[in-house]
Amino acid sequence: MTPIKQGQIVKFHTPLADENPNQLYVVLEVIEDDERPRADIQALNTGLSFPPINTVRLDDLEIVEVETNDLIGHKVTINKSDYSQVEGRVIKVSEQKIEINLSNAVHGVETNVWLTVVDNKGLEHIGTLFVNPTK
Questions:
Q1: Which residue ranges make up each domain of the chain?
Q2: Which sign does the torsion angle of CA 79, 82, 86, 90 carry?
Q3: Bridge partners of residue 76, in order along the sequence
């Protein structure tokens, strides 16, 4: 089993009968404990302004691979290797499925999702998806 760490997307491997088996969560913090390691998680795509944060056992979670093809055609921001940012429409994803890692940045969230985008001038750029909550 891959160790679970902050910023990963997870789900419950054996959800309760009344729970959505496809509900995804982001790991906010891993609480290391020899007896009962736990994680603070927050549900994604709930429609709530402030989704609750729950503390659960690490043993109950599994890392999820996310389909990246859904990003094709969407306007996004990427971080390039020269530390610049570019906005453009996604034309290509580097991997069809990926275990997404998220990390806080100064003005948003950095990911490990590599994309190729086309800017307004028709130029192609390669970089990692950057999520800016203010846009």
A1: 9-63, 67-131
A2: negative
A3: 88
In one-letter notation, the amino acid at residue 61 is: L
Q: Is the four-CA dihedral 51, 55, 12, 70 of positive or negative sign?
A: positive
Q: How far is residue 67's CA from residue 95's CA, in Å, rounded to a whole number? A: 9
Please calculate the CA angle 24-112-12 and round it to the nearest 5 degrees.
20
pLDDT tens per residue across span 12-67: 999 888 888 989 999 999 998 888 999 999 988 888 888 889 999 999 999 998 88
Is the confidence at residue 132, as pLDDT, over 90? Answer: no
Q: Residue 43: name the closest of 67, 73, 19, 59 by CA.
A: 19
Cβ atoms 63, 8 nearer than 8 A: yes
107-126 pLDDT, tens digit per residue, is 888 999 999 999 999 999 99
Residue 64 makes CB contacts below 8 A (sequence gap 6+) with 9, 10, 11, 24, 99
Decide: 129 and 71 in contact? Cβ < 8 Å. Answer: yes
Contact by Cβ (8 Å): 120, 88: yes
